[in-house]
């Protein structure tokens, strides 16, 4: 999480944590960010196994991604999610709401799973699916491959040159 707001779905994520805790009270969660839901997040850290940071320097994020087994993006609206790109590049599979650019990055059963927007139960099912089928490594490796093939600087540079060359011909 980056911004603790309704837009980012932090209220849904806190609901997810509460419900997931009833299934597995040993599952740990990480929340990073600040915003209007900060009091609710701080209160939740007293009840559930949540580690909370207001912010982390960007250069340290790789260490945090590498400690995660799944990234959950429960935003109600999204462009092309940088946090998903970064997590996938660290071989962390994603479970994300089926909005905006998320389907470009999360391919069901390949790089993670999409869930119906704002549907906490569906998100939990997708998390459990990864856990029960032990899909961390396979989804993670395919996620990294997707990022390298479609979103790396080399790939973007190549695509940009192709566009410029097409425009030059016209």
Question: Can you walk through the features of this model?
Answer:
- The protein has helices spanning 10-23, 38-47, 61-67, 82-89, 102-105, 120-132, 136-151, 153-169; strands spanning 29-32, 50-53, 71-73, 94-97, 112-115.
- It has 170 residues and is mainly alpha-helical.
- It has a domain at 56-169: Glycogen Phosphorylase B (Rossmann fold), CATH 3.40.50.2000.
- The protein has a 3-stranded parallel sheet, sandwiched between helices. It has a two-stranded parallel ribbon with strand order 1-2.
- Helix 2 links the parallel strand 1 (29-32) and strand 2.
- Helix 1 (10-23) packs across helix 6 and helix 7 runs parallel beside helix 8 (153-169).
- The longest helix is centred in the last third of the chain and has 17 residues, at 153-169.
How would you concisely characterize the structure shown here?
With 170 residues, the chain is mainly alpha-helical.
* SS-based class: mainly alpha
SS elements, strand count = 5
Low-pLDDT residue spans:
none
Could you give the distance between the termini? 44 Å
The CATH superfamily title of one domain: Glycogen Phosphorylase B
Order of secondary-structure elements:
HEHEHEHEHEHHH
> Kindly state the mean pLDDT as a whole number?
95
Q: What is the rounded Rg?
A: 17 Å
Strand content: 5-15%
Which CATH architecture of one domain would you pick?
Answer: 3-Layer(aba) Sandwich
User: Main sheet?
Assistant: 3 strands, parallel
Give the CATH class of one domain.
Alpha Beta
What is the CATH topology classification name of one domain? Rossmann fold
Strand order of the largest sheet: 3-4-5
Share in helix: 40-55%
Number of helices: 8
> What gross morphology would you assign?
globular
